[in-house]
Amino acid sequence: MNTKGNPVIGIVGGMGPQAGLALFNSILCRTNARKDQDHLSVILMSFPGDIGDRTLFLENRQLDNPAFRIAGVIKKLEDAGADLIGIACNTSYSPEIYNVVLEEMKRSGSRAKLLHMPAETCDHLKSHFPGVQRVGVLTTNGTYQSGIYSDLLKSHGYSVIMPPKEFQAGIIHRLIYDEEYGLKANPRHITGEAKIWYEKAMHFFKDHGAEAIILGCTDLTVLVEECGIFGIPVIDSTECMAMALIREACV
Amino acid sequence: MNTKGNPVIGIVGGMGPQAGLALFNSILCRTNARKDQDHLSVILMSFPGDIGDRTLFLENRQLDNPAFRIAGVIKKLEDAGADLIGIACNTSYSPEIYNVVLEEMKRSGSRAKLLHMPAETCDHLKSHFPGVQRVGVLTTNGTYQSGIYSDLLKSHGYSVIMPPKEFQAGIIHRLIYDEEYGLKANPRHITGEAKIWYEKAMHFFKDHGAEAIILGCTDLTVLVEECGIFGIPVIDSTECMAMALIREACV
Predict the structure, then answer these.
(1) pLDDT of B146 higher than 90
(2) What is the model's pLDDT at position A30?
(3) How many CB pairs under 8 A join A and B?
(4) Could you tell me whether strands B84-87 and B159-161 are parallel, antiparallel, or unpaired per DSSP bridges?
(5) Which of A11, A29, A32, A39 to mutate: most B Cβ within 10 Å?
(6) Closest partner residue to B49 among A4, A52, A179, by Cβ?
(7) What is the per-residue pLDDT for B188?
(8) Of the four listed, A23, A80, B83, B224, which is most buried by Cβ atoms within 10 Å?
(9) Alpha helices per DSSP H over chain A
(10) Are B16 and A36 in contact (CB under 8 A)?
(11) Average pLDDT in the B133-154 region?
(12) Which positions 159-178 of A are in contact with B (Cβ < 8 Å)?
C-alpha cells in the first residue's frame, strides 16, 4: 500500500530490462491522469545480472532454476510495499519456473497477489476477439517448449499454430536473442535483420491461417508499433498484463 | 549491492512518472549489453500520489515539503539494496527541498550516494561544449524561482538567459504542467499545443543568443528527438544523470 492506502504494483523486471520498462510504460499510458498525483504507485525492480536465463534453464543448459531469484525479487517488492505483482517475462510462467515461484512465495508467507500473464493474455483474446479460432504465438524457445501458451489456448478451445522447431529457433527465438541483431542486444533501435525475422514470423502465421497472433514474449512489445501486421490482430502480452494490473489496482 | 556484489542504482521516480521511466530507459540504452545479464541493476520507485508537487511547495501554495516523502523513498530504495540514488526531478534539487532531503538522509544514517542532477548537467555542458558562454534553461516555475540552475551556471562563469516571468509561466511551465495539453497530462503523445510552446521557448532562447539550451526538467526529455532545435546544442538533464549513474555504478 502507498501512504494513501492504495495498492502498489510491483514489477519483476530485468528479463529483459526493456520488458520491465515496457510494462511500466504501458501502465502509465493506460492511466487516465492530468497530473503526477493521478498516477498509480509502481515499483520496478530490475536485477538482470542476478537472474539466469529462463530458456537456458528450461532447455537444461543451466542448472539453477531462476524461480528462486524471481521469488527473491517478489519478496523485496513486497517488503517495499507492493501488493500486486507482475513478472515481466512470459517464459517465467512456464510451470517448471512458475510453480517454484508460487511455492517460494507460500514458504515466505507472501500475501501479494501474483498475476498470470499468459492467462490474462488468453482472457483478453477471448473477450475482445470472440470470432477467432486459429491463433499463432511468437515466443522464446523456453515458452515454446514448455507449452504454456499452447496448453492454455487449447484448454480454451483454440486451434494453435505451432511453427516447426527449426523455424522457432532460427527465426523467432533468434529475433529476441541474437547477440548481434536481436531485440535484447539492441535496446536503442530495431535492426534490419530483426525486422526481417519478425516479418518472416508474421508471414508464417498468416500463411497458416492465423486469425490472431499473440506476442508471447515481453521483449517483442517494442515491435508492435514499428512493424506491419497484415491486418491480423496482434495481442501483446505486456499490454494485457498492464491492463490486468490496473484492473486489480483500481478495485 | 546485487547478489554479485555490484552497485545497484535507485531511482526516485513519480515526479512525473514518465521522468523516472525516461531516466531508467536512458541508463538501459547507454549500457553496452548483448544479453539481459550484461545490464545494470536498477530499482525504480514511483509513488506519484504520495509526493506533493514540488513547484506548488516552492511557490508557497502547498505547505508540506516534498523532501520528507522523497527521503522516505530513498530509504526504501536503500532497504531494497540501492547504493547510488538519482532523483528523476530537477525541481527536487532546489535548496529548499534538496537540503532537507540531505538532512533526512543523515538523520536516518543513510549510506547511499545521492547524485546531483543540475550539477551533473552543468559538468556535462562544461566538458562537452567548451566554447559555449550563453546558456538558456527550460524548467518548471519552481526550479526557475529557486535559481538552482542559474546560480550553478553563473558560478561556472556562464551567462544565463532568463525568460521574463510571464513567458516562463505562460509558455515553459505550461508546456510541462497544462492539465489539458501539457506533457504531464499526455504520456502517450505530444500534443500540437505542447509542440508550439516548445518551439516558442526554443525561439526565445535562440533570439536571445543562446549557444546551448539545458532541458532542466525531466519531463522535457520526451521532446528531445521529437522537435527541431535550430542547430543549437540541447543538453538533457535526464541523459546527464543517466551517464553519471552509469559512471558511478561502473567504477
Answers:
(1) yes
(2) 93
(3) 149
(4) unpaired
(5) A39
(6) A4
(7) 80
(8) A23
(9) 17-29, 54-58, 67-79, 95-107, 117-128, 141-146, 148-155, 165-167, 174-177, 192-207, 237-249
(10) yes
(11) 95
(12) 177
Give every CB contact of residue A242 below 8 A, 6+ residues apart in sequence.
Answer: A23, A26, A27, A30
Total number of residues shown for chain B: 251
Residue among B36, B48, B179 minimizing CB distance to A39: B48
Enumerate long-range contacts of B151-160, CB under 8 Å, 24 or more apart: B152/B118, B152/B119, B152/B122, B153/B122, B156/B122, B156/B126, B158/B125, B158/B132, B158/B133, B158/B134, B159/B133, B159/B134, B159/B135, B160/B134, B160/B135, B160/B136
- Min Cα distance A154 → chain B (Å) is 31
| DSSP SS3 for A48 | coil
Where helices occur in A30-147 by DSSP H, the ranges are: 54-58, 67-79, 95-107, 117-128, 141-146
Tens digits of residue pLDDT in A40-52: 999 999 999 999 9
Single-letter residue type at B184: K
Cis before B16 (ω within 30): yes
Is A44 within 8 Å of B32 (Cβ atoms)? Answer: no
Are the CB atoms for B149 and B225 separated by under 8 Å?
no
Calpha distance A236→A214 (Å, rounded): 6
Segment 183-212 of chain A within 8 Å of chain B by CB: 184-185, 187-188
Q: What's the gap in Å between the CA of B238 and the closest CA on chain A?
A: 16
Of the partner residues A35, A50, A188, the one whose CB lies closest to the CB of residue B184? A35
Share of chain B above pLDDT 90, in %: 83
Contacts B79 to A, Cβ<8 Å: 79-80
Cβ distance B48 to A25 less than 8 Å, yes or no, reads no
Decide if pLDDT at B194 tops 70: yes
Residue-wise over B159-185: b if at least 16 C-beta within 10 A, else e?
A: ebbebeeeebeebbbbbbbbeebbbbb
Low-confidence ranges of chain A (pLDDT < 50): none
Inspect the interface and report whether the beta carbons of A17 and B37 lie closer than 8 Å.
Answer: no
Burial of A226 (C-beta count, 10 Å sphere; 0-12/13-18/19+):
exposed
